[in-house]
Amino acid sequence: MNSVDYNPKFDQILMSAHNFNEVWIIDHSTTTEEAASHYGGIYNHGGDLLYRWGNPHAYDCGTAANEKLYFQHQVTWIKPGLPGAGHILVFSNGNNRPGGPYSTADEFVPDVNNNTGEYELLPDGTYGPFDLTWQYHIPIEYYSSIWSGVQRMINGNTLICSGTIGTFIEVTQDKQIVWTFVNPYPPNQYNSVYRTEYIPPPPPPPPPPVSNLECNGNLSWSNIKPGATVHGSFQVMNMGDNSSLLNWTVNNTMTWGTWTFSHTSGSNLTPEMGPVTINVHVVIPKEKNMMFQGNLSVQNKNNASDVVTIPVTLTTTASASYSIPFQSFWQRIFERFPHAFPILRHFMGYE
Q1: Taking a C-beta distance cutoff of 8 angstroms, is the pair 238, 270 a contact?
Q2: CATH fold of the domain at 213-316
């Protein structure tokens, strides 16, 4: 034997019996005692072969003309999820091949019941198939009389190791070479490789949870005394996928008033955390009977197109009709006592 493989679906073992130029399959489920008999195990064949293929002449059911394999290595089932899953791949080295030695990568489909894992024995005492599903004639310069291997790749190509010359080639299903590599160790001599193993790339990470920006509230003030300070608020929320993280920022394009925000940005806001309240303070212009308007925007830092606009409107009134002497009197009082009469000071527009 020079290779074994396991099929968990059928609980079977696949072996390469290279001196027989055959592949064999046996029942893995048997006990030691059952394996020493012809009964027991899932398939009730004990230690008998469930399937053999490649050279019926080895058990007197054919001639040398029926031989398919020649001193083969690395017999494997093509794994689930790969092109050709369930088929068998084998590197047939080519020793004693009629017409001269050359190596091939062979793929065939055993006659198996995919529900039960049982193989059909033909009336002539052999197992199918008669023909290969796919075969690649390895260029003669890559011939390898011993060792070597073959493996299906995730992209559907086949990786071939020509062991005696330490050369690896990747071929497509239509038998085009797309990659070649020569083992450089040790350099210039003895660079043979028993076999290679293709390790598929890890699956891509799942996409991050999607955040979705939403805002509640608006900013609207009316009949405000010129020069006064107004207050308002709005809320920022992440209404996206669970555990998503929202990074947000406030963009203020207002050209009027003096604006102050309790927060101008935030990070790592999850839906579970609920809304964040943004308090706004605006010192409005000292212009009378005016309407000021515009928009604030809140933007998702991780998605420039995820933007919420908050409309802003504000109107001012005419100044209260105080007589000049009255206003002058209180102006002098306020200047002399800067901390006195805060309510009146506010009402008359001196702060």
Answers
A1: yes
A2: Immunoglobulin-like (2.60.40)
Q: Is 111 within 8 Å of 52 (Cβ atoms)?
A: no
What's the token pair of residue 322? 């105080």
Q: What is the pLDDT of residue 201?
A: 87
What average pLDDT does the chain have?
92
State the pLDDT confidence band at 200, using cuts at 50, 70 and 90.
confident
Domain boundaries, the chain: 4-182, 213-316
Question: How far are the Cα atoms of 106, 179, 262 from residue 212, in angstroms, in the given order?
Answer: 53, 45, 22
DSSP class per residue in 42-84: TTT-TTS-SEEES-GGGGTSS-GGG---SS-EEEEEPPTTSTT
- pLDDT tens sequence across 23-62: 999 999 999 999 999 999 999 999 999 999 999 999 999 8
Q: How many CB atoms lie within 10 A of CB 9?
A: 11
CA-based Rg of the chain, rounded to a whole angstrom? Answer: 41
Contact call for residues 351 and 343 (beta carbons, < 8 A): no
Q: Is the pTM of this model over 0.70?
A: no
Which H/E stretch holds residue 162?
Answer: strand 158-162
Per-residue pLDDT, averaged over 223-241, amounts to: 95
Residue 29 CB partners (closer than 8 Å, separation 6+): 11, 41, 42, 43
Quick one: how many helices (H) and strands (E) in the chain?
3, 21
Does pLDDT of 285 surpass 60?
A: yes
Tokens of 313: 């409107």
Task: Report DSSP state, residue 121.
Answer: B
- What residues have CB less than 8 Å from 341, skipping those under 6 apart? 333, 334
> Token pair 């696949």 is at which residue?
14
